[in-house]
Every structure is written in C-alpha cells, then in structure tokens.
Amino acid sequence: MKPQDVEKVEKDEPVRVRFALIAMSFELLMVILYGAFVDYAPTVDAQNDGASGEVPRFYGLYQDVHVMIFIGFGFLMTFLSKYGFSAVGLNFLLAAMSIQWGMLLVGVFHWIHVGHQDTIGLSMTMLIEGDFAAGAVLITFGAVLGKTSPVQMVGIMFFELIFYNLNYLIGALKLEAVDMGGSIFVHTFGAYFGLSCAWVLGRKMSQSLSGHEANGSSKVSDTFAMIGTIFLWMFWPSFNGALADPVSQHRVIINTVLSLCGSCIGAFLFSQILRKGKFSMVDIQNATLAGGVAIGSAADLVVGPWAAILIGISASAVSVWGYTKLMPILEKKICLFDTCGVHNLHGMPGLIGGVTGAIASAAVGDNIYGQNIGAIYPARALGRSAGEQAGMQLLALAITVAIAVTSGALTGLIVQTGFFQAPDSEGFFSDHIDWDDVEEGDAIFEHHAASHDHAGEAKEHDHLNPTCLKVIPEPDTKPEDELCVV
Question: Which of 38, 93, 180, 197 has a 20 to 30 Å separation from 436 between CA atoms?
C-alpha cells in the first residue's frame, strides 16, 4: 500500500466504522423493543404440554425456508467474480437483521389491524414470517447488488420492512387477498421495491455502471452461484407451503414441484432458442426458479397438474426473454441497472403468479376435494363471491406494485445521501473496499468482464491473459446505443 493510501485510511477511520456504530445502534434498539413488547407465544410457554405440535409440524419446513434464505439467496448472488465475499456475507447479515426487525413489525402492524396493543408472541409461525420478510429484502438486495455500501443496505432493509408490512396489512389483512406462496407480498413487492430503488441510485451513475469492468463472472463464480440455484429449487415447495393448512399443503407441494420442473426444462429450451443455439448460465441460474414464484398464489388450489406445469414453462419463457431482450433495453433506455435481474426472476413471474391466483380464485367452487373454500379464502366463508375474491386478488397486486415502486424510490432518495456512504465507481462490484485481505484486482479465478451477459453477444477470451476480453457486437449495434441517456 502506498504511503498516501495509508494516510487516507487513517483519516477515514471514523467514517469507515460508521457501519459498526449503526449496527450497534440497531441491535440496541432491538434489545429495548423486544424487552418492552415481545415475549414467547403460549405455544412455547413452559406450562404448555406440547399438544399444539408447532415444532413437529413447522420446524422442518422452517429450516427448509431458512436454508433458502441463507444458502440459496446467498450463493445465488456470488456470480460476480469480484464480489463473492459481499454477496454471501452481506446476505447473511441482512437476513439476520431482517428476521429481528421483520418479526417485530409483523406484531406492530397486527396491533394496527386489531385496534389494540398486546404482547407480540414469538412462535414457529412467527419465525417463518420473519424469514419471508428477509426474503423480500434479499430480493431487493439482488437488484442493487454491487452498487451499494453496507450502510446503505442496512438503511434499505430498515425502511423496506416498514412498507412491506404496511402493504401486507392492506392486501392480506384488510382486503383479505390470499397469497400462500408469496407471489404478491414477497416476490412482487421485493422486486419492484428493489428496481425502483436501483433506478434512483443508478440514474446519475449510468456512465460508471454501464459496462463496468468488475461487473462480470467467471466459470468458478458461476458454478458457486449454481449452488444457490439448486438449494432454492429443492426447497421452494417448503417456502410455498410452510404456512398452509395440512390439507392444502399436499396440493401446494405437488403443484410447486410440477411448476419448478416445468420452469427448469423451459429455462434450458428457451435459453438455447434465444441465445442462438447455446445455454447461458444466467438463464439457468434464475429462470429455472421462475415456476416457484409464478405458482405461489395459486399453489393451494386445484389448478390441475397440467396447469402447474404450464405455469412453470410460461414463467421460464418470460424470465429468459427478460434476460435476453428486455433487460438490455431497460438499461439503455431508462438507466435501470438490475444486477441480478430480479425483474426477470421475481418481478414478472410474481405478476404472473398474482394474475394466475386471481383467475384460480374466480374459477374455484365452494368446495375443493371435500374441503370448504372458506378454509383457503376466509372471506368466502363470510359471503364474498368468487368474482369478488378475484377482484380483491388483483387489487392487492396493483396496490403492491404501487407501494413498492413509490416506497422504493423514496428509500433510494434517502440512502443516496452522504450519511449512508454510497460507493464510488472504484468500489462497484468489488470486495476490496469493505473486506480485509482483498486487493482491487482479486477475482475468483479468471474474470471475464461483462461475461454475465444478457444480450447474447459473442465473446472471445484470451485464457493466457485473464485481463484480455474482446466483445464482438452484433452487426446492428450502434455506438450511440451503448449508454442510456438521463
């Protein structure tokens, strides 16, 4: 390290520990609030005889969802060859913070719904709710991956979960829309909150972000990311069915497995079609999972095995199309830099799931295989018609997008201020700013700048010189189209 660099680090020391001070303040706040308002639910009270069966019923599913949050999401985002520590490390941190803050806010907004304050009871189902809240935050993290500081991400997490629970209060508790697998309240909200936040943060940095040399993958980092994909794919049925009643749970699991199989096969076939005869790892890492997102809202209904497969195939087609065609257009035209492509994995498939859930709720009768429809749609038991329920499902979807986009933009404006320590272009997509023993040029094996390509451009790599990369543009590519205009 050069002497001037050492001097700069020493001068910046109070600024560099700002994250630690904020994290300490956050944990102190959690200790105070949990001490004042939170206790164990009756099901985990020492006087309970265990008859509730919460641990035998929910703990296995909870651990499946836990694996998705910490391993699935964490490793899926390690595709950036110079950002692996931050991807899996900050995922770990944000998930832990989100669980604490999310469970507390679930209880607070329940107070608002019922109109009186009571002790917030912690149970197995509340732990699952905490993981769902973390899932929304981590989806947002994918949209801004590599472009934000740890301090910014803590701020985004803090504000997002307030709006996440506000949206759930309106959609699920007031409108009584049902979203068993989180297509609306987790995936759609997290995606469009993150996209809106990413647009606000990226629109003034478009020239630095477009074609950034560190925004790339290697064969090894892409393989690590596939670990996340496989874990998510395996455990997604548990995510969709964790809080379903025992009768519906069978349908949720079966429908989700069939939809995931459809999206896996669809991702490969559409990738080859749209990538001019070859598979792309970005498609396989993400579009294979789109079926799990899209089936979420209708997973507990009898949509039919054929429909579950069709939903999965359709979601994968939309996802691959998003990566190959739509994503480059959004980058060039409106300066929307979506690092992980959450619009293609969570946003558009989430919309498909919301619409599919509305159609299914309109078509279902008063009984499903002997089960009263009121067990799935409580408002139906109180006289709401199938058509009215479908309308509420669509209204909840529209409100979710509106709240996510608005609150995401607002949060982006807040965290781009100087207090939150936004990184400069040197720190984009690289671990060396925030992690010890990492140099600026470090990467996981050979780094291919922009090789995690969305537009399907051909590339030539000089494997004897890892820094050499030639991009061969398509014949109709125009130089003036390379950067978006703000």
Answer: 197
